[in-house]
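Please fill in the sequence for the structure shown.

STRUCTURE ENCODING:
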């Protein structure tokens, strides 16, 4: 066994909630025939919930999370930080 201290980091509830919500919204948009990435990006840039379908409560789900939190989680994930 080596003498180095190991770090343990839990995924925060915020990250898990954002991830789960984005997957649900993505799948709902895809089911309805939309390009989910384009629709979600449109929403994140503009704040206009009209980009998100109300199908399967996707609009209600995504509006429970602040857009800046979604961007933060996406950037953290992309940059592996």
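FILLED IN BY: designer on duty
SEQUENCE:
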């Amino acid at each position: 066994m080596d003498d180095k201290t190991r770090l343990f980091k839990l995924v925060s509830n915020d990250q898990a909630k954002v991830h789960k919500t984005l997957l649900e919204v993505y799948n709902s948009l895809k089911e309805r025939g939309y390009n989910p990435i384009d629709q979600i990006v449109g929403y994140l840039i503009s704040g206009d919930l009209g980009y998100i379908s109300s199908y399967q409560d996707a609009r209600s789900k995504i509006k429970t999370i602040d857009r800046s939190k979604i961007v933060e989680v996406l950037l953290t994930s992309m940059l592996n930080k």
